[in-house]
Design a protein that fits this description.
46% of the residues lie in helices and 15% in strands. The chain has 12 helices and 8 strands.
């Protein structure tokens, strides 16, 4: 699912190499993005003259709105923008299609962009310049969550960038560049992306982390560039957040099962909280002390809400515990369903 990002200033810094625009291939998956696609393309084409030589490919999954018409109109202004059909519909299928069928001999880098987004000036060329300078297989970037549409979104945005929300993931609000095992996908060395087969199109969620597993197994390094940052607008309602994290949990379980990996401690934590709370309630009539598990977890969430209140200096912060609990329980439910039911 595309993420909502908003344009922010980006540090350009000095790089060790400048990549030619003709070496860059950009994949933009779309499906009914008439409200966002023009702003996305215009933002991607700003800030660097080299962008005129880059190839931007919009892979449309069968839009029934005006997305295709808007892209066709923009092609008159930006001749380097192409529009193709994506019969696979999913974002992963779109990126694979662009990488496999649109590459030329002089395309060395692949940049993945979301249509439901507006990017900082020179985003594409900054990504590939840093990627070239590090000689890495992949470059990932940081996301900073913001919420301004509802009180719940504001609380969700704050808590997701804390260890309680993201488990300490380096790309969620982090500030340190370095080699990582996963992050928000931005750019790839095209030959390395193709050599491992691109995304697994059977994954509707967690396809990025699954690809990172194969990339690392093939000896590829993933560089997190903390100077390139995107704003992320998380879900603004509890129901949509629950659905999102349920799918995330299922996707993570699929990745671990496919690669026969053990979960990390931060991935086991929500499962433990789910089982402890459910078990504590179920057995409390027999062994009353087990009720301490859900009570302790509730106390943790209340403490999170109070922490959010003071950290955000807003009454909306009181919903932080609700947002965190929704993430934990939904993720764990999806994870356990995939492990035991599939």
């Amino acid at each position: 699912m595309a993420m909502s990002k908003t344009e922010i200033p980006m540090s350009t810094g000095a790089t060790d190499a400048l990549v030619e625009g003709k070496s860059v291939l950009v994949a933009i998956p779309t499906l009914n993005e008439e409200k966002h696609i023009e702003a996305c393309i215009r933002s991607l084409m700003r800030g660097d003259d080299r962008l005129r030589a880059a190839k931007l490919v919009v892979a449309d999954g069968g839009s029934t709105d005006a997305t295709r018409e808007i892209v066709t109109r923009l092609q008159r202004e930006f001749p380097n923008v192409e529009l193709i059909e994506n019969p696979g519909r999913l974002q992963s299928a779109a990126v694979n299609l662009v990488a496999r069928e649109q590459r030329l001999d002089d395309h060395l880098y692949l940049v993945r962009c979301d249509a439901h987004a507006a990017y900082p000036p020179a985003y594409i060329m900054t990504v590939v310049d840093r990627l070239a300078a590090k000689a890495s297989a992949s470059l990932v970037v940081c996301m900073d969550s913001v919420g301004d549409s509802t009180c719940f979104q504001a609380a969700n945005a704050w808590v997701v960038d804390t260890p309680l929300g993201s488990g300490g993931s380096a790309h969620r609000g982090g500030s340190m560049s370095g080699y990582v095992d996963h992050g928000h996908h931005a750019g790839f060395a095209l030959d390395r992306f193709l050599s491992i087969g691109g995304y697994d199109e059977s994954f509707s969620h967690n396809e990025d982390a699954e690809l990172d597993e194969r990339l690392a197994a093939a000896g590829g390094k993933i560089w997190l560039e903390a100077d390139i940052r995107l704003l992320y607008r998380p879900r603004d309602r509890i129901g949509s957040l629950a659905k999102q994290y349920y799918s995330y949990g299922r996707g993570r379980a699929r990745t671990l099962l496919k690669h026969r990996r053990r979960p990390k401690l931060r991935q086991l934590a929500p499962v433990g909280l789910f089982l402890g709370s459910a078990g504590g309630i179920a057995f409390s009539a027999i062994t009353p002390w087990t009720f301490l598990a859900p009570v302790s977890y509730l106390a943790l969430l209340i403490g999170t809400s109070l922490w959010g209140l003071f950290a955000t200096r807003s009454a909306c912060g009181l919903l932080s515990g609700l947002a965190a609990g929704t993430m934990h329980m939904s993720w764990a439910a999806g994870f356990l369903r995939q492990v035991f039911i599939r």
